[in-house]
């Protein structure tokens, strides 16, 4: 699991426990395995002779970047055991040798509890950043330090010092010299215990980084990370952060156990699902995430939640460098809405504000060369920007299509607004979201060219499946449209706009008839109305709108119940069971003759997050065995076959390949948990 809190940067680890994936620069990943970042064990016998010394690559990590070693002396004689943590400056790249880095020892005491260690002061992309390696003092434990050694050498001075007596000699100075260009710097902290035969002891370490003030590559604005609400903002917080971690990790463990307990003790849930459910949350912290405070220049209203909870953003993926990609967040948002609802609220407020924004910079799109404005007024943006530009100031970093014409973004905004209202019961939130919800629905109505109440796709990949062309009415966008019409009419009622509600309900009734007539074939909803052979494809995501209605607690049948059950059975029998013998989730597109739809790369893919959403729909409809069979294929492929736990890809292929590791959409597994708990509640009633 990667270490680090939400929005404060992360350091990822490999399967052997090595530190190998750094996200110190906001949203930018550097993949370097740093050999100097290690744990070392040194053991001496009762006569003071060293009998064992070794680098320990595998180790256990818990939230808060605390590393707790349990040492068991299963011999019958006294042993002196030293565990040493080493860490170097930088992130493993060329900048590490830029010079100007220095280290110093520190000791921090609060209420009689002492933590000591070494700090490394440096800059990362011209942003001050301090690493701290620390250990907790307690009875029977001796903590010693080596404030500086050369990590580019063999570490002779470190190994020899430890080999003498399993601890470091007192350094001649508490701080090291500043590195020159070409030099690097590392430090070490050792915890030494004396253990009688048959006894156990603990060595408690913390690794923290204090990088309170950040900027993106555009450098137009500076931001303060959210944790500085409680810690210094001037770069002197590493010592207090270390103390906080080592004083609180046991409490965090208990809180995590209490939170996970209802799921872990639910005998009706398969074990693999429990693992996937919690482990997929890695992306909330390790999705290039930033969480920073609002500033006074924003002139936010006094009741705006961003004054208290700031701004939160996470990338579409490690390789898809756009913040809060909205068509994908639509799936992933269940994790935030259920677990960190205030983060979902502030994210939605940022998108709500962006709807009225306009950026008349003209650019040519990669798909068709069409030249349009970067951001069109009265449209939901695709994303809030690229960390390699200037997020929040330059939105819509996505360069492939003109997203102002995408058919799904406006509808997904309305559906999330109503879903959040259903979960939070926040009337102020609903009233705030209502005006722009209506604006984007009126914009979407322009896509109904024949007046039958049902919007049409424009003959391009104008939605989240951005290589899969839809023409005319489509199952995917049509289902989202029907669901959005239902939700906007409910919202209108709630804010007292009864006339508006009646108008949207009238449009919905027309749209339902058109959807049924133009797309239902008796077994499933056709992919689209293009009239091509591929228009008959069975799309795994064809009931996306219905899924959201059920997640909103809506029991009315906007989609005929018999259609829903029949379509789900068709998807299960074809997209799941006739693809890799049901062992790999649901392929996006399947032809009615049992062939995978090969019209485009995306129709041939299995989208991990879409599969979890499909499984959630199945749970809502009582198809429990089918749901876990479908979703189980994702877990066993990602975690057991291809070893991509903690970097789940967006897409899987039938053979050998995958696409877009470290992706946002698989957080939709929390929609399964929402469906499960909602169904249990209905059964209990």
Automatic annotation (TrEMBL):
GO terms for biological process: carbohydrate metabolic process; glucosylceramide catabolic process. Residues 2-58, 61-252 form the Glycosyl-hydrolase family 116 N-terminal domain. Signal peptide: none annotated. One of its GO terms (cellular component) is membrane. Residues 310-672 form the Glycosyl-hydrolase family 116 catalytic region domain. InterPro entries: 6-hairpin_glycosidase_sf, 6hp_glycosidase-like_sf, B_Glucosidase_GBA2-typ, GH116_catalytic, GH116_N, Non-lysos_glucosylceramidase. GO terms for molecular function: beta-glucosidase activity; glucosylceramidase activity. Pfam families: DUF608 (PF04685), Glyco_hydr_116N (PF12215). It comes from the Eukaryota. This is Non-lysosomal glucosylceramidase. It comes from Timema tahoe.
């Amino acid at each position: 699991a990667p270490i680090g809190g939400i929005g404060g940067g992360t350091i990822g680890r490999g399967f052997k426990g090595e530190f190998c994936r750094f996200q110190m620069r906001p949203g930018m990943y550097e993949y370097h395995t740093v050999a100097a970042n290690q744990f070392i064990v040194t053991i001496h016998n009762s006569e003071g002779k060293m009998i064992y010394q070794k680098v320990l690559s595998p180790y256990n990590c818990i939230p808060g970047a605390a590393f707790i070693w349990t040492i068991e002396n299963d011999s019958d004689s006294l042993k002196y055991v030293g565990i040493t943590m080493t860490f170097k400056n930088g992130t493993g790249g060329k900048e590490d040798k830029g010079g100007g880095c220095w280290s110093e020892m520190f000791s921090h005491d609060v209420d009689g509890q002492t933590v000591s260690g070494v700090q490394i002061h440096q800059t990362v992309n011209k942003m001050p950043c301090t690493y701290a390696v620390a250990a907790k003092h307690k009875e029977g434990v001796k903590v010693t330090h080596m404030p500086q050694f050369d990590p580019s050498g063999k570490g002779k001075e470190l190994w020899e010092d430890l080999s003498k007596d399993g601890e470091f000699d007192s350094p001649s100075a508490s701080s090291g010299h500043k590195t020159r260009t070409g030099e690097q710097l590392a430090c070490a902290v050792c915890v030494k215990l004396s253990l009688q035969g048959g006894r156990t002891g603990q060595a408690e370490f913390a690794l923290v980084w204090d990088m309170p003030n950040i900027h993106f590559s555009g450098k137009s604005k500076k931001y303060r990370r959210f944790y500085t609400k409680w810690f210094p903002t001037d770069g002197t917080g590493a010592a207090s952060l270390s103390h906080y971690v080592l004083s609180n990790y046991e409490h965090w463990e208990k809180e995590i156990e209490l939170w996970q307990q209802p799921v872990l003790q639910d005998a009706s849930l398969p074990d693999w699902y429990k693992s996937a459910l919690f482990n997929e949350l890695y992306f909330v912290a390790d999705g290039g995430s930033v969480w920073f405070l609002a500033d006074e220049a924003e002139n936010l209203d006094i009741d705006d939640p961003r004054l208290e909870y700031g701004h939160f953003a996470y990338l579409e993926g490690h390789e898809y460098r756009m913040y809060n990609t909205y068509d994908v967040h639509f799936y992933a948002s269940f994790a935030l809405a259920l677990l960190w609802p205030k983060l979902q609220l502030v994210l939605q407020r940022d998108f709500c504000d962006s709807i009225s924004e306009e950026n008349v910079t003209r650019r040519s799109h990669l798909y068709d060369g069409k030249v349009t404005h970067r951001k069109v007024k009265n449209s939901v943006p695709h994303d809030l920007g690229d960390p390699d530009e200037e997020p929040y100031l330059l939105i819509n970093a996505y360069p492939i299509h003109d997203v102002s014409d995408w058919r799904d973004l406006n509808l997904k905004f309305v559906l999330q607004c109503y879903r959040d209202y259903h979960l939070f019961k926040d009337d102020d939130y609903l009233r705030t979201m209502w005006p722009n919800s209506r604006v984007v629905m009126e914009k979407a109505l322009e896509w109904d060219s024949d007046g039958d109440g049902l919007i049409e796709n424009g003959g391009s990949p104008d939605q989240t499946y951005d290589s899969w062309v839809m023409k005319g009415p489509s199952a995917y966008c049509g289902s989202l449209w029907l669901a959005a019409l239902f939700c906007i009419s409910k919202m209108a009622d709630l804010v007292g706009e009864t006339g508006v509600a009646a108008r949207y309900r009238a449009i919905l009734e027309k749209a339902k008839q058109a959807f049924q007539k133009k797309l239902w074939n008796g077994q499933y909803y056709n992919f689209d109305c293009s009239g091509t052979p591929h228009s008959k494809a069975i799309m795994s995501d064809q009931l996306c709108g219905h899924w959201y209605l059920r997640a909103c607690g809506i029991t009315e049948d906007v989609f005929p119940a018999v259609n829903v059950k029949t379509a789900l059975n068709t998807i299960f029998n074809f997209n799941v069971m006739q693809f890799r013998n049901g062992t790999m989730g649901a392929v996006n597109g399947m032809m009615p003759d049992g062939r995978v739809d090969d019209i485009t790369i995306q129709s041939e893919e299995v989208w991990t997050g879409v599969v979890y959403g499909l499984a959630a729909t199945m749970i809502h409809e009582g198809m429990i065995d089918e749901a876990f069979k479908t979703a189980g294929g994702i877990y066993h492929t990602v975690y057991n076959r291809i070893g991509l736990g903690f970097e789940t890809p967006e897409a899987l292929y039938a053979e050998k390949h995958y696409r877009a590791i470290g992706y946002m959409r698989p957080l939709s597994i929390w929609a399964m948990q929402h469906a499960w708990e909602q169904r249990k509640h209905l059964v209990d009633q």
